[in-house]
Amino acid sequence: MEQYKEEFIEFMVDSNVLKFGEFTLKSGRKSPFFMNVGDYVTGSQLRRLGQYYATAIHDSYGTDFDVLFGPAYKGIPLAVATTIAFSEMYGKDIRYCSNRKEIKDHGDVGILLGSSLNDGDRVVIIEDVTTSGKSIEETFPILKAQANVDVVGLMVSVNRQERGMTQKNALAEIREVYGIETGAIVTMEEVIEYLYNRNCNGRVLIDEEMKKELDAYYAQYGAK
Questions:
Q1: How many CB atoms lie within 10 A of CB 182?
Q2: Residue predicted with more confidence, 112 or 45
Q3: Across residues 61-80, what is the average pLDDT?
Q4: Residue 114: how many CB atoms within 10 A of its CB?
Q5: Catalytic residues
Q6: pLDDT at residue 215, as a whole number
Q7: pLDDT value at position 107?
Q8: How far apart are CA 31 and CA 188, in angstroms?
Q9: Residue 70: in which H helix or E strand, if any?
Q10: Which residue, 154, 149, 172, 153, is CA-closest to 162?
Q11: 178: cis peptide before it, omega within 30°?
């Protein structure tokens, strides 16, 4: 596993973004782990988060794109932090763009925040996690209604590697339905492998008991 992925896993734990226990997801599933990217709240955390996203996006898509689109609301700070990091790390100024939940009819009018979209723009979508693919289902019409853009791909922080609407995982479904590449900074398989019986800042988050719970969860819902 690349060093930046190991560092990112520890960063999620240190930031209390990745938690293990018993959680009920929006889908109704009972999950032994939970992620909340909204818990990145400080300047230093957002700076590092943007750097990890920028590294993963560069590894997957290089610099051949124009716009980073972050769906409202959580995608907005992700897009801003990552465009800054991308400029600093790779010397290319990409534009950030996000949508509003409600269209603004005065001043800076329209549904978009940040950059406008132009015909021919190559767009990468950035999100926190994707469990069902529903957010992409909502995002695509917004993008296509603004201009004839080319959606290059999607980058999330963690691939949960569990079934979406079918027997495939959500990222695989998105690739199939929309014909775009998908990627993640890390997969849950990598997270589990790295944290299993490892002391992380004085805690072992995935011990034998938690590993059994995770194995049972993925036996029921898993889809690599």
A1: 22
A2: 45
A3: 95
A4: 19
A5: 104, 106
A6: 97
A7: 46
A8: 13
A9: strand 67-70
A10: 172
A11: no
